[in-house]
Amino acid sequence: MSANTPMTITVTGAGGQIGYALLFRIASGAMLGIGTPVRLRLLEIPAGLNAAEGTALELQDCAFPTLASIDVTTDVSAGFEGTNIALLVGARPRGPGMERGDLLQANRAIFAPQGAAINAGAADDVKVLVVGNPANTNALIASAHAPDVPAERFTAMTRLDHNRALAQLAMTLRVPVSAISNVTVWGNHSATQAPDIAHGIVTDSRGVPQALPEALAGVLGGPGAVAEWLGGTFIPRVAKRGAEIIEVRGSSSAASAAAAAVDHMHDWVLGTGSSWTSVARVSDGSYGVEAGLISSFPVRSNNQAWEIEQGLEVSPAVRARIDRSVQELRDERDMVRSLGLVP
Ligand SMILES: NC(=O)c1ccc[n+]([C@@H]2O[C@H](COP(=O)([O-])OP(=O)(O)OC[C@H]3O[C@@H](n4cnc5c(N)ncnc54)[C@H](O)[C@@H]3O)[C@@H](O)[C@H]2O)c1
Ligand SMILES: O=C(O)C[C@H](O)C(=O)O
């Protein structure tokens, strides 16, 4: 990509709540930079068409210099024709009391045709981010229907979990979010995920694990304080934040999900810089995660490709959580396999 070459970006579920938070940020240049014009393609089903068309009118009214064109369609093939970036947001969101497994059934008809349309018509460099839940397994379904697109180009979003982990750490350590790096979320974008702070660093070069005892003093004390805080507060808070938002807000996270999607694609296209981030991408067997599953790893983007950070030591506690989350991914894969959606 060179500056000034327009990029075609398809957003599915454009009439929904994430779509409404996401499209204006993409159009303003927050995702690819203000030097890259964007052509937006808004893909909806008939029930969401009016909302998407209304959003398109508002996008026009923003007069963003970066916005080259907007098309709204319900035609899946037209939606992905020539697309460079596909953001698969459209899906039924989880309501109170629902688990992600409940959504596999509801969303299975969406991701197979979309994968096939990407295979047939998208640009050669297409990059896909699945946001719609259950995101990892939906990405697996879409990828299975796009045999000509490298599997590494189908990713699922765990950047929101990653950002949640950074924010919780920053509040606890009383430092800016920008001061913390090298935190990882492993596994599934679900309550089984494995947030891992073992390699985290604070700008002053202290490790996050070394900085925590002082920050926790007065709240928790003694030699087990950090482990107690991780297991009793930090991990459940990050892993169950989606459910907390649903309970407090009455509907699932939208603006924070949109912000995470912007971060994910920004870093994929423009590079990660000095820290790694978390992305669910196809496993090559690294860290004992079954090859072929789409699982979250610590990754850096080099030359517009997500590379898994190698050689990190994984503690027994994190290992156990990763194994549980990967087992959940296997179970989801087996469920969609039994429906004939993946080989
Ligand atoms: N990965 C994450 O971190 C994360 C975070 C938040 C939400 N989510 C998920 O994102 C998805 C969207 O959430 P939302 O709050 O915007 O939901 P929403 O109900 O507000 O919007 C979904 C939109 O998708 C549309 N849609 C449904 N099927 C479609 C299809 N086949 N093609 C195109 N559009 C289609 C609907 O008409 C609707 O407008 C949900 O699955 C939600 O669980 C994921
Ligand atoms: O948890 C959900 O269902 C919504 C979303 O995946 C989230 O993490 O906020």
TrEMBL record:
Keywords: NAD, Oxidoreductase, Tricarboxylic acid cycle. This is Malate dehydrogenase. Belongs to the LDH/MDH superfamily. MDH type 2 family. Substrate binds at residues 94, 100, 133, 164. It comes from Paeniglutamicibacter kerguelensis. It catalyses: (S)-malate + NAD(+) = oxaloacetate + NADH + H(+). The active site is at 189 (proton acceptor). SUPFAM superfamilies: LDH C-terminal domain-like, NAD(P)-binding Rossmann-fold domains. Its EC number is 1.1.1.37. Residues 8-147 form the Lactate/malate dehydrogenase N-terminal domain. NAD(+) binds at residues 13-19, 107, 114, 131-133.
